[in-house]
Design brief:
With about 350 residues, the chain is α+β, with helices and mostly antiparallel strands. About 65% of the residues lie in helices and about 15% in strands. A four-stranded antiparallel beta sheet has the order 1-2-3-4, with no helix packed on it. Strands 5-6-7 form a three-stranded antiparallel beta sheet, with no helix packed on it. A hairpin with a 5-residue loop joins β1 and β2. α2 packs antiparallel against α3.
Length: about 350
């Protein structure tokens, strides 16, 4: 914005306005006014000359009458000479009077024309003044609108500067928070790696304990089988040998006994409980489902939610008191269910 200029003196302003008004209203009509004034002066001069000539004519007529009345006493020759001289003088004065009347008529017509032209010019001048007043009012309105717009622009510039300052401060805060977030992510990744290593060690320990228990149960079962083989027992045929609880065996299954729809989509993880009756499954529908094996069928025992992505791995505690699931997010997340 430009610097505010000092306001001029009111006298200078009035003088400037008067000069401008003089230039707009007087100068275009100066020639017409001068010619009109000259014609008026000429008309006044002609009127005064006409009056003088009329007075002289009346005076000469009176002298002529006096001469006619008193001319009888004078001689005939001198009388005739004076009369002829007076008649010539009267004739000249009549010609001059006629010329003056003719010039007076011409001047009157010219004055009428000039008056009509002056009226037209006055009408044009009044219209021009009205237009000038309208333009001046419009100019004042534009100046008022300009001042209002300048104030609005100043306010908007202040708001823009405030917004820029806020944006700068927010950018600095964002950069600081982003740095803190990076540090937190690094710390989280380190903690997650340590936790995964710890869980891997625990899983290895649990697997070793499970292997030892299974070997011990197998030894006990072998001992029981040997004792049972030494004893004579009656063999009872069983219609459905798979109805017994799960027992360890050395072979591999050869056929599908039961099939069901466990999840809406892919099944990514399956985990048996220590008893062999409870089964946990995890799928792409972000759910972990628990199943009970009863009579070669699986009955739904519960549904666990809380993962934000597909479940990729499941682990169950030895006493079936806790369950752990891993989701396929950007960083794998564990969910415990107690």
């Amino acid at each position: 914005m430009e610097a505010s200029r000092p306001k001029p003196n009111f006298k200078d302003t009035i003088l400037h306005e008067l000069k401008r008004r003089h230039d707009c209203e007087v100068r275009p009509w100066e020639g017409l006014i001068r010619s009109h004034n000259r014609l008026l002066e000429l008309n006044d001069n002609l009127k005064s000359n006409n009056i003088q000539l009329t007075l002289e004519l009346d005076k000469l007529r009176a002298e002529n009458e006096n001469l006619k009345i008193h001319g009888e006493t004078s001689s005939g020759s001198s009388k005739s000479d004076k009369v002829s001289a007076l008649e010539q003088k009267v004739f000249k004065l009549q010609e001059e009077l006629t010329e003056l009347h003719r010039r007076k008529g011409e001047n009157s017509e010219l004055i009428i024309q000039l008056n009509s032209a002056l009226k037209l010019k006055e009408n044009e001048l009044s219209e021009a003044r009205m237009k000038i007043s309208e333009f001046e009012s419009y100019q004042r309105a534009l100046l008022t609108e300009k001042s209002n717009l300048e104030k609005t622009i100043l306010g908007l510039e202040e708001q823009i500067q405030t917004i820029r300052d806020e944006h700068t401060s927010l950018q600095l805060m964002y950069n600081a928070l982003e740095q803190d977030n990076r540090k937190i992510n690094i710390e989280y990744q380190e903690l997650l790696n340590r936790w995964l290593k710890y869980k891997a060690v625990q899983a290895d320990l649990v697997n070793m304990q499970n292997d030892a228990e299974i070997k011990q149960k197998q030894l006990q079962m072998q001992n029981l089988l040997q004792q049972a083989a030494e004893q004579a027992v009656d063999v009872v045929e069983v219609d459905n040998p798979r109805s017994f609880p799960f027992l360890p065996f050395d072979g591999y299954p050869t056929k599908c006994v039961y099939k069901w729809d466990a999840h809406e989509g892919e099944v990514n993880a399956v985990k048996f409980g220590p008893t062999g009756i409870l089964v946990a499954t995890g799928g792409s529908d972000r759910k972990i489902k628990l199943w009970n094996i009863v009579n070669n069928t699986c009955e739904e025992a519960g549904v666990l939610t809380g993962c934000n992505a597909a479940v990729m791995s499941i682990d169950i505690d030895n006493d079936v008191s806790a369950l752990f699931g891993v989701c396929a997010e950007k960083t794998d997340t564990g969910v415990f269910y107690g």
